[in-house]
Write a structure and sequence with these properties.
Blueprint lengths: L2 H8 L1 E4 L5 H17 L6 E3 L5 E4 L2 H4 L12 H9 L4 E8 L9 E4 L3 E3 L10 E6 L2 E5 L2 H4 L2 E7 L10 E3 L18 E2 L7 E4 L5 E3 L12 E7 L14 E2 L9
Antiparallel strand pairs: 1-12, 2-3, 3-4, 4-14, 4-15, 5-13, 6-8, 7-8, 9-12, 9-14, 10-11, 10-13
Length: 247
């Protein structure tokens, strides 16, 4: 099975060994600098006494993060799936720091960041997260989004790995998912996971004595620069630096 066949059939696939260890180390160093610079920003999520375990609004905090997508075979894969107008529409950061782990129950990723979340017939449940308007998007939007998860650490059974239900991306409502066995994912630092936002997924706590991070840069990429119903993405940074249709 090719990566494209797995993405379409299961809703997720790995691109292995995309980033060398020195690139991963450079990204971690850059993020460490940004975290210290924006330590009091509401977009950087920290516990009362622990390190940052997450962050929102990375396209504001770290605009250069988009360059991580402009390497092969990742760039080619994104353009193959989403087309020449593929753009990054939201970037998050996750970690499960040693001694400060967390877990998430089974869910799908419905929320998108928009410029304004006023009255609409298509989008629902307007909220604000770290100062940015968000809404729940319909399936016609989410089916044209691919999430890129760049793993900066190994993901193992010891550090709260991601679990997914293959094929669940075909169903908008989690209650309609086919009764298929979940899969626990493992990878190395430098690997990239492509997944559809409607894949039902979860993760547990790291083992207490693991002493491991699980740092991930999470980039949501859309095929379309324009949203329906007069809505606009909060951010839209084109992945390809070439004009549409140009090599």
């Amino acid at each position: 099975m090719t990566w494209r066949e797995q993405l379409e059939g299961d809703g997720f696939t790995f691109l292995r060994g995309v980033f060398a260890s020195k690139t991963v180390a450079a990204a971690l160093a850059e993020w460490e600098t940004i975290t210290h610079r924006h330590a009091t920003d509401e977009a950087v999520l920290t516990g009362e006494s622990g390190p940052a375990y997450g962050a929102r609004n990375l396209l504001d905090l770290w605009p250069g993060v988009v360059d991580l997508l402009r390497v092969e075979p990742l760039l080619g894969a994104l353009l193959d799936v989403l087309g020449a107008n593929a753009g990054v529409v939201r970037v998050l950061y996750f970690d499960k720091p040693p001694g400060h782990s967390w877990a998430l129950p089974w869910h799908k990723d419905y929320s998108i960041a928009v410029r304004a979340n006023g009255p609409t017939t298509l989008f629902t449940k307007p909220t604000t997260k770290a100062g940015v308007p968000h809404v729940i998007a319909p399936q016609i939007v989410l089916d044209r989004v691919v999430t890129v998860r760049i793993h900066l650490d190994d993901m193992t059974p010891d550090n709260g790995p991601l679990r997914v239900i293959p094929g669940s991306h075909r169903f908008y409502n989690q209650t309609n998912d086919e009764p298929r066995d979940p899969v626990t994912l493992e990878c190395r630092g430098g690997d990239v996971l492509l997944m559809r936002p409607l894949v039902t997924h979860a993760s547990g706590h790291s083992k207490v004595d693991a002493g491991l991070h699980r740092r991930i840069v999470h980039l949501e990429c859309a095929a379309d620069a324009v949203l329906p119903d007069g809505y606009e993405w909060k951010w839209y940074s084109r992945v390809s630096t070439s004009k549409p249709g140009c090599p």
